[in-house]
Design goal:
The complex is a heterodimer of chains A (108) and B (118). Chain A is mostly beta strands. Chain A is built from no helices and 10 strands. Chain A has strands at 5-6, 9-12, 18-23, 33-37, 44-48, 61-66, 69-74, 83-90, 97-99, 103-107. In chain A, β8 and β9 form a beta hairpin. Chain B is an all-beta fold and 118 residues long. Chain B has strands spanning 3-7, 11-12, 18-25, 33-39, 46-52, 57-59, 67-72, 77-82, 91-98, 105-108, 112-116. The N and C termini of chain B lie far apart (39 Å). The chains are: A mainly beta (108), B mainly beta (118). Chain A binds chain B through residues 1, 30-31, 33, 35, 37, 41-45, 48-49, 52, 54, 86, 88-90, 93-102, and chain B through 35, 37, 44-47, 50, 56, 58, 60-62, 94, 99, 101-106, 108-111.
């Protein structure tokens, strides 16, 4: 299976903008999905597809993609956004999936 | 209200088979794709496999020889069996629903912790 690579840790000042990236060859063929996970909780889908934000997710979360890199942008990060963020996509076929290693976001 | 709930033993002995069930509430098991994902302590998410209500499956190649996912539409449940477990299979196991078009996992169970130990 292929890999999706994420930076292990990223920090952002309160109210500033942060971009979390995910790299992998499969992202040339498939869109990434993004999940937020807080300690002891299940992941929550925050963005997926070309431009889809699930109901209830603040509009400060947005996604983009270019070549083999997908990005999740948080515009005006809040304290409650401090969490682990995972990307995932389909892998070599439409019924195989792969996750990135996760990025720990710290809001300063 | 849509809800997924995992159930099964929290402790499994090495070399035995881990068995978990996910019960679907408030959603139709017969129209969606379903998946199992796990997370070892302090580590990231690992996709295990998926099933469609028709019974079509596919598995993570690294686990394929040990994994079986099945579905019981009458009970609105799908299940995971992982054989010959070792300590490396200790993890929180999540079930999730897949959005077919984007491939995103949009609904997750709360997760169930499984420890492999004698």
């Amino acid at each position: 299976s292929s890999e999706l690579t994420q930076d292990p840790a990223v920090s952002v000042a309160l109210g500033q903008t942060v971009r979390i990236t995910c790299q992998g060859d499969r992202l040339r063929n498939y869109y990434a999905s993004w999940y937020q996970q807080k300690p002891g909780q299940a992941p929550v889908l925050v963005f997926h597809g070309k431009n889809n934000r699930p109901s209830g997710i603040p509009d400060r979360f947005s996604g983009s993609s270019s070549g083999n890199t997908a990005s999740l942008t948080i515009t005006g990060a809040q304290a409650e956004d401090e969490a682990d963020y995972y990307c995932n996509s389909r892998d070599s076929t439409p019924t195989l999936w792969v996750f990135g290693g996760g990025t720990k976001l710290t809001v300063l | 209200q849509e809800h997924l709930q995992e159930s099964g033993p929290g402790l499994v002995k090495p070399s035995e088979t881990l068995s978990l069930t996910c019960t679907v509430s408030g959603a139709s098991i017969s129209t969606d794709y379903w998946s199992w994902i796990r997370q070892p302590p302090g580590k990231g998410l690992e996709w295990i496999g998926y099933i469609y209500y028709s019974g079509n499956t596919n598995y993570n190649p690294s686990l394929k020889s040990r994994v079986t996912i099945s579905v019981d539409t009458s009970k609105k449940q799908f299940s995971l069996k992982l054989s010959s477990v070792t300590a490396a299979d200790t993890a929180v196991y999540f079930c999730a629903r897949i959005i077919p078009l984007s491939g995103a996992f949009d609904m997750w169970g709360q997760g169930t912790k499984v420890t492999v130990s004698s």
